[in-house]
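README: folding subset

This subset contains proteins for which both the sequence and a predicted structure token string are available. Records are stored as plain text. Below is the entry for PI-PLC X domain-containing protein 2 (378 residues), shown exactly as it appears on disk.
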Amino acid sequence: MLALRKARRKLRMGTICSPNPSGTKTALEVCNADWMASLPPHLHDVPLSNLAIPGYGKRTFQYRDTFHVDVHWKALTRGIERHACQKTKEQGSHDSFSYWVDEKSPVGPDQTPAIKRLAKISLVKKLMKKWSVTQNLTFREQLEAGIRYFDLRVSSKPGDADQEIYFIHGLFGIKVWDGLMEMDSFLTQHPQEIIFLDFNHFYAMDEAHHRCLILQIQEVFGNKLCPACSVESLTLLTLWEKKYQVLIFYHCPFYKQYSFLWPGKKIPAPWANTTSVRKLILFLETTLSERAPQGSFHVSQAILTPRVNTIARGLVGGLKNTLVHRNLPAILDWVKIQKPGAMGVNIITSDFVDLVDFATTVIELNDLLQEDRSLAKC
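--- output ---
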């Protein structure tokens, strides 16, 4: 019966977003645009904190964590010199990396003066781009693939006269307004899908910048914004009835002034900070066992964090080729044996989700909740 339910659900939500002449389906082409709407009725009244939800996460690693040590600076500089004559070339049919980071922009305020000095060396920004980008897909493409949680870091751009806010991760990305508009367009076309936007790092932002950002959030999403309330009361059914589609988590005291901003403590996301898959999995298991049974969502960051020596050794290869390709299969194997629920997984994040069918793997964990329900009825 479980296999039959999976097959039926795939017929409903596993449509092709982009036809492939070869007839095969890549992770980008398998469309989970309506997976929440496609869940069976008995999961509509399960708290969202008990469902398995795929997310996109940025590693919390920042260059400044290690660059203040002179020996690390020298190691990286030698690596740059060693590869300076090699041609760096982004892979893919289009340079979607530029969606997330702009190598022509200044180094972000999330970096130290040491990194800003290093960035004056030719080629450094291209290399920073390779190690800053954790995703090939645009917001729209991720949403169509099934991603529903986004780890967001934002900043003003020093020297700009206006109050514009940008996504940032070492280098500046697109404007926040443009990203939010892209999400809203998707939500309007898919009225039963719910997203979690976790604004957890703010750089070079004073009160006026925060007011501007919050106003943008309000203007873009309007009545789709879900007011902060009891986590256990939030189910698909209650959200659909009120036409709420967006939960905003704001890791800054300003959340107290707006009913539609949720406090950051309601969505803890423990960070392993390791390059070891074994240590990462042990950390994920430990933090899951310590998860509070009520009162918050829970993010399992299934993400490895490069250290400066990792970067120096794999300078030109970049994050994807040095860490992700090699370790993503083991991480996905861990995901496959998880179970959602009050003490199980909730939101699971990864990066470069297009390399494997990550979102579908997480979504299908909800079939275990279906199986439990049918056993209970028997």
